[in-house]
Amino acid sequence: xxxxxxxxxxxxxxxxxxxxxxxxxxxxxxxxxxxxxxxxxxxxxxxxxxxxxxxxxxxxxxxxxxxxxxxxxxxxxxxxxxxxxxxxxxxxxxxxxxxxxxxxxxxxxxxxxxxxxxxxxx
Length: 122
Known about the structure:
Elements: H1 5-17, H2 21-27, E1 28-36, E2 39-44, H3 46-59, E3 63-73, E4 76-87, E5 90-103, E6 106-116
Parallel strand pairs: 1-6
Antiparallel strand pairs: 1-2, 3-4, 4-5, 5-6
């Protein structure tokens, strides 16, 4: 099976924007390894990831993810994106990068890096 990575990435980021844990759970594999700055040692397995997502989404304001670019790598893809957040102290923009390894059409490994962008006009 060939995965259209641009379409996959767009749908995946929309599920993150929507805080749609059931859709995300269908996109990640049962033995997924997930890492981000909040959990650098990661979580392993879909139950641990879905529990993490539910906690994280409940604790964060709305975030709108938008793809910047995506490119294939052996076994998956890398993607850069922006995330705009309506933070109580003012708008925040993040730039992010994901490395994704797939098993079929499900994510087996996902490592996320982010950094905060300077305010507009700075």
